[in-house]
Amino acid sequence: MGYKLLGANVSPYVRKCRAYLAEKGIAYTYEAVSPFSPPPGFRDISPLGRIPVLLDGDRPIADSTVICLYLERCNPTPALHPADPYLYAHALWIEEFMDGGMMPFAGPLVFRPLVLGPIAMKQPVTPTIKADALKVVETSIHPQWDYLEKELADKLFFVGDMLTIADIAVASGHVNLRHADVSPDANRWPKLAAFLTRMYARPSFAALLAEETKPWDQREILRAV
Ligand SMILES: N[C@@H](CCC(=O)N[C@@H](CS)C(=O)NCC(=O)O)C(=O)O
Q: Which of 20, 32, 141, 169 is the most exposed place for a label (fewest CB within 10 A)?
């Protein structure tokens, strides 16, 4: 029966799973599901009402972190979780830093008012809304970029010398910020900026970005506010 992923492109957690599937070379079908107007019975497979959900045949798995760990266990090569126990834990930590640390600011306080609001909720971006969102970027996300810059140091990848879930999670979360015209300045965070450029150029992310360019990419509109 194969894998089916349920979710919406706008979600960093769905994007993380799709990039993970692509990097593993795993075939899957994708079904658009909004958590705000879910199909009947959605809570039976996603008890918290959230996306993504992976169906392995008729067996549901909720939560992007759990989904990626499940995929890793079922499809061990190419490995996207390190074998070394400490590096494994560190990769999961970087993933959590993004999902539980940056996204609670980047999602509801930046992406939602600057991108989701005007496109999906008929809430235009005013100068005040934009200034409030940029304040969140400065006070909450800039220190997180400092941390990521230091963590990356002179490496190509966040953990060890291979692509891992850590890199996928960092890139996936930043796509939402990028849609809102928010990206780390290469003068201040050169390593992180170069890392994101490399990640977005990988076929996994390039394909997702191409799918998302419209309607989620608001950069031109935002520059005019
Ligand atoms: N920890 C979850 C978070 C998933 C999540 O919060 N998804 C959002 C969309 S980006 C959602 O479904 N929100 C609807 C809700 O919480 O009611 C994961 O990693 O999958």
A: 32
| Pocket perturbation via mutation, ligand 1, pick of 5, 11, 14, 70 by most ligand atoms within 8 A of CB | 11
What does the pLDDT look like over 175-205, one tens digit per residue? Answer: 999 999 999 999 999 999 999 999 999 999 9
Q: Are residues 107 and 69 in the same domain?
A: no
pTM: 0.97
* Structural tokens at position 78: 């190419």
Distance 76 CA to ligand 1 centre (A): 26
With a 6 Å cutoff on the Cβ, whether 78 touches ligand 1 is no
Of the candidates 33, 51, 74, which is a domain's last residue?
A: 74
Q: Is the CB of residue 9 below 6 angstroms from any atom belonging to ligand 1? A: no
Alpha-carbon gap, residue 178 to 216, rounded angstroms: 10
Residue 21 to residue 19: CA distance in whole angstroms: 5
Dihedral-angle region of residue 34 (phi above 0 means left; psi in -120 to 50 means alpha; beta otherwise)? beta
CA 15 – CA 20 distance, rounded (Å): 8
Residues 43, 114, single domain; the answer is no
145 lines ligand 1 (CB under 6 A): no
